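Quick one, tokens below:
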């Protein structure tokens, strides 16, 4: 088993650890992610839910994503840091916002999704696979 991957929110009220390395990471330009990441793509890191240890109680916001999937997004109620998202159709996976990792360097994206929602100035990595819309969480992009 690999070393734990740890993270927290900005204020430290919520802390978490996964007992395994990320399965995948990718950048997402969907409109919802732009709200979460101050206008840029969000970088989302995918783990197995069973490996999660969570300290603190993030609040949850549920909505339907552009993909039509029911999503539950969790964030710190003190500092507002976006932490996790969980898709109703992938209950065994846990998505972590890369900025909340103690070492965001672990979250190198393997692809970019929802590029059609990016603004004209949006920088999409030229060398990575990209999808105009949604792609299955694993693998990062077809
Ligand atoms: Zn916090
Ligand atoms: Zn997104």
């Amino acid at each position: 088993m690999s070393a734990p991957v740890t993270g927290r929110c900005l204020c430290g009220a919520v802390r978490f650890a996964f007992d395994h390395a990320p399965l995948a990471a990718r950048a997402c330009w969907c409109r919802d992610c732009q709200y979460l990441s101050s206008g840029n793509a969000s970088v989302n890191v995918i783990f197995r839910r069973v490996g999660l240890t969570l300290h603190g109680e993030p609040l949850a916001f549920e909505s339907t994503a552009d993909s039509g999937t029911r999503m539950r997004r969790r964030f710190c109620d003190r500092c507002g840091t976006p932490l996790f998202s969980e898709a109703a159709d992938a209950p065994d996976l846990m998505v972590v916002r890369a900025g909340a990792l103690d070492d965001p360097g672990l979250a190198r994206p393997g692809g970019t999704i929802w590029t059609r929602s990016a603004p004209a100035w949006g920088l999409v990595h030229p060398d990575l696979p990209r999808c105009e819309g949604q792609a299955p969480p694993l693998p990062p992009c077809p």
